[in-house]
Design brief:
single chain, 0% strand, disordered N terminus
């Protein structure tokens, strides 16, 4: 299946490369959004390379999310377990699905990638807990600030009333 102005060998043309959101380095004909039928018709080695590349990209996204600032919300579509990781697909980012549960086993052939993914998910979960505690502390600080500002406003209203009374007395004394 040819895309846009792709060449017969499946490599993208210059026009496709200019509009392609994924980097052109290392791109293959199978590194694109494909139907399940197209994936099944692929050579087994290419299917494995496609799944491995998608796995590496998904781990990189999870690690990038884990490195972000604590107060920044995490991606809502970020998977938290193996089954969701396999089904997670974002074609614009080159995140493809795979169906083999053995591919992402914690003690399987891609154990290093899986441990990196699980570490990133653990960091995100911890960040979420810290985020809630941080939010409580921030709310308490804002409550203290509001109380201080209310006291300051009450004090300024009293000073304003006293100054008006003084001005009224001075005007009355000047009029005599």
């Amino acid at each position: 299946m040819r895309r846009g102005n792709a060449r017969r060998d499946g490599t993208p043309s210059a026009a496709d490369r200019a509009t392609d959101p994924l980097p052109a380095i290392g791109r293959s004909a199978w590194d694109r959004d494909m139907t399940p039928g197209e994936v099944k018709r692929m050579v087994a080695g290419d299917r494995g390379r496609r799944a491995l590349l998608a796995f590496e990209r998904k781990v990189a996204v999870a690690e990038a999310e884990a490195r972000r600032a604590v107060d920044a919300p995490a991606r809502p579509d970020l998977p938290t377990d193996r089954a969701k990781l396999r089904r997670w697909a974002v074609p614009a980012e080159g995140l493809w699905v795979w169906s083999d549960p053995a591919f992402d086993k914690p003690r399987g052939r891609n154990a290093a990638l899986m441990s990196r993914f699980l570490a990133a998910v653990d960091l995100l979960r911890a960040r979420g807990r810290r985020g809630r505690a941080g939010l409580r502390a921030e709310l308490a600080a804002r409550d203290r600030l509001v109380s201080d500002l209310e006291l300051q406003v009450a004090h300024l209203i009293g000073e304003n009333r006293a100054l008006r009374d003084r001005v009224a007395r001075l005007v009355a004394d000047a009029a005599r």
